[in-house]
Design brief:
- It is a single chain.
- The chain is α/β, with parallel strands linked by helices and about 575 residues long.
- The protein has three domains: about 100 residues, Rossmann fold (3-Layer(aba) Sandwich), CATH 3.40.50.2020; about 280 residues, EreA/ChaN-like  fold; about 110 residues.
- The protein has 23 helices and 14 strands.
- Strands 4, 5, 6, 7, 8, 9, 10, 11 and 14 form a nine-stranded mixed sheet that branches. A three-stranded parallel sheet has the order 1-2-3, covered by helices on one side.
- The chain is globular and about 90 Å long.
- This is Phosphoribosyltransferase domain-containing protein.
- InterPro entries: Emycin_Estase, Hydrolase/PRTase-associated, PRTase-like, PRTase_dom.
- Pfam families: Erythro_esteras, Pribosyltran.
């Protein structure tokens, strides 16, 4: 300490802080022992106020200091708190020479008038491309997409009308103008495949609403809503025209793995039609899952993880291998249509296998189960691409993915990467490189369809204005209503989007009372996405079945004063 003080002061006397406000900063606090010592030493100089400001500290330490000094600013309070360095992407220590140089730099004196540098919001506004309703011009989409085979389009909530509408409009353009032949959604495989049959003129459903009725699991509104219904109707009509002309049809598929029990039923149903003996084997194996309530994978996972019920891992693997061994003969025997149905059955068996692992892992840690889910999505996407590419007489398949920003964005550009968390967007980038594009959608304020608890009723909730320091706040400051910004198109956008900021993520539950803790995490947007579409004010997505609670909506916090 004596050595450093001598080096850093370089003969300069201590500052006179009597009667002044002093801000004590550190790269973070753990126990806070060194900060306590600094506060005690500083009090002898009789400052008017002492403020502590740190980027990271345990909540308990921040609360303790709140009773000691005049003000405390803790930018983040990770839970659990492991070490200060865990809160940084770059925690390299500064050298003594760097400290000396910074301390020697004048911070007061004669000011030099320089032209004011443009703010980050001004830079973004100057390069932003208007996107009415969230839909960029065709030439912008052409420049952004290029020859990419996989385009992931996100959303910062699962209940915003404009996100769904913009995504549907962009997808129509991708299908019509760029030859995309599949939509792969953050939806369960069997429920989405029912929609796939409908849009291809197959199955028994006579309307889009009926085709979407398979989405019964919470949150049903995520896919049973007016925007998806209208898109499904459009896709069916489009496919009908192309079918009549011998053109390629576009399908609708699911990437998720929550359909443990439904997928077992679909495997058995397929085998009942093509191989009754194999169906009997499947029934025997999948009977293992009957020890828990129907269609409740979480109950199975809990029982298996804690020894309250059997693990069905072996049976799930055996059935997958058994089915894979015979699939080729089924397809060869029954023709092209059977190829699709055989693929559908195989993916159901794969979903059972992966869901079994996922539900058991659910009780061992959030990161593990999250990674298993996104790895399953990536695996399903790979399998779908391979299936659609199986014939040589058609162009290479191109797929658009619909999922939440938290899946679409690259985890390596967010704080969750430090915990070892993966995302679908990251896995796609690593596998497909420049053949992929990640697009995020966000908003500043408005309303959203969300529940207050898991399994709760869909409500129309007021979305609070985005927090200061967030990417949404920055984009709001541009004063533009709806626009696209992309460093790929305009490199000038890279610098303001490379700054680490908060990013909002509203899933199917919205808890405004704990907005910061529940819905924000740190992101570096320039690396998280290839482009962002910001729609400043948005409204709630309309479910196909609206409740009185949704229709009534949420009373704004300022009611009735309007202040």
């Amino acid at each position: 300490m004596v050595r450093r003080e001598a080096i850093y002061r370089a003969g300069r006397p201590p500052l006179d802080v009597a009667g002044k406000t002093v801000i004590l900063v550190d790269d973070g606090l753990a126990t806070g022992a060194s900060m306590f010592a600094a506060v005690q030493a500083l009090r002898e100089a009789e400052p008017e106020q002492i403020v502590i400001a740190v980027p990271a500290a345990p909540e308990s330490t921040c609360r303790e200091f709140a009773g000691v000094v005049d003000d405390v600013v803790c930018a983040s309070m990770p839970t659990p708190f492991l070490a200060v360095g865990e809160s940084f992407w770059d925690f390299r220590q500064v050298t003594d020479e760097e400290v000396r140089r910074l301390l020697a730099t004048p911070t007061s004196g004669i000011s030099v008038i320089r032209p004011a540098a443009p703010t980050a919001a001004e830079v973004i506004s100057s390069v932003a491309i208007d996107a009415p309703g969230g839909v960029p011009p065709s030439e912008t989409l052409e420049e952004l997409i290029g020859d990419a085979r996989i385009v992931l389009i996100g959303e910062s909530s699962h209940g915003t009308h404009e996100f769904y509408a913009a995504r549907a409009a962009i997808t129509k353009w991708l299908i019509e103008e760029k030859g995309f032949c599949a939509v792969a959604a953050e939806a369960d495989w069997p429920d989405a495949y029912r929609v796939n049959r409908y849009v291809r003129g197959l199955g028994e459903d006579r309307s889009a609403a009926a085709a979407l009725s398979g989405f019964e699991r919470f949150p049903a509104w995520m896919w049973r809503n007016v925007v998806v219904r209208d898109f499904v109707d459009w896709l069916r009509a489009r496919n009908q025209r192309h079918r009549a002309n011998g053109g390629r049809q576009a399908g609708f598929y699911g990437l998720d793995l929550y359909s443990l029990h439904r997928s077992t039923h679909e495997v058995i149903s397929f085998l009942d039609k093509v191989d009754p003996t194999a169906a009997a084997r499947a029934r025997s194996r999948y009977a293992c899952f009957d020890h828990t309530s129907a269609d409740d994978g979480q109950a199975y996972g809990y029982a298996a993880a804690f020894g309250a019920g059997p693990s069905c891992e072996r049976q799930a693997i055996e059935q997958l291998v058994d089915l894979q061994r015979h699939l080729l003969s089924y397809a060869r025997r029954d023709g092209l249509l059977a190829e699709d149905e055989a693929f559908y059955a195989q993916q159901n068996a794969q979903t059972v296998r992966n869901a079994e692992v996922y539900y058991r892992a659910m009780f061992s840690g959030r990161v593990t189960s999250w990674n298993l889910r996104d790895q399953h999505m990536a695996q399903t996407l790979d399998a779908l691409l391979k299936h659609l590419d199986r014939h040589d007489n058609v162009p290479p398949a191109r797929i658009v993915v619909w999922a939440h920003n938290s899946h679409v964005g690259d985890a390596r550009a967010t704080e969750v990467w430090a915990d070892g968390q993966l995302t679908l967007g990251q896995l796609v980038r690593q596998r497909y490189g420049d053949e992929s594009r990640l697009i995020g959608l966000c908003t500043y304020s408005g309303t959203v369809t969300a529940a207050s608890e898991w399994g709760g009723i869909a409500e129309r909730k007021v979305v609070r204005p985005a927090l200061n320091g967030s990417i949404e706040q920055l984009l709001h400051e541009t004063g533009r209503n709806a626009f696209l910004v992309s460093p790929q198109i305009t490199p000038e956008a890279a610098d303001p989007l490379s700054v680490v900021r908060l990013g909002r993520a509203i899933g199917v539950i919205y808890l405004p009372a704990t907005e910061r803790q529940s819905h924000y995490f740190h992101v570096r947007p320039a690396d998280q996405f290839d482009a962002m579409i910001h729609i400043d004010k948005t409204r709630a997505l309309e479910p196909l079945e609206t409740t009185s609670l949704w229709i009534a909506g949420e009373t704004p916090e300022t009611y009735p004063s309007g202040l």
